[in-house]
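User: quick one, fold this
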Amino acid sequence: MPIEEFQNKHEVHPYNFDAPPEGLFQSIHLAEGFEEELGFRRTHEIVPVNPTQVFRTDAPAVFVVFQVFQHYESYQVMGLCYPEKVPGLDPGTLLMQDAMLLALEDETGFVKLTRPEGGWKPGQYKVEIHIGWAVNAISLMGSMRFTIREQ
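Assistant:
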């Protein structure tokens, strides 16, 4: 049998930076809030409260709550929020950003995107998720989207 037929062939799919992050993240959710729970290793675990992709215009914040795999170096998870399809707002305008430092023992965390001045406008928003110490082309891990609707 030729070696090409004997070896396992793996399909390599191109990574989609416009989709929710994969690889480093065990899970990542948009949520109305978060809670801290005591984990089985007596660590503080952050879990999402009311996971959703649709928020009201009076929402005080949108949280990106995540769980990562074990790591051997500290790093930051950063979220940058843009108005992707919001009437009257330029999609390239950075509305807000937040970052959370993950220490060696941390496997969960959150990024808090606070309500902009004047409140949320109805429409679709995009959150770029970056990893590292600075935002640049190679720090982008993926994108999350949420919708703001009138009450």
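User: anything notable?
Assistant: The chain has one domain: 15-149.
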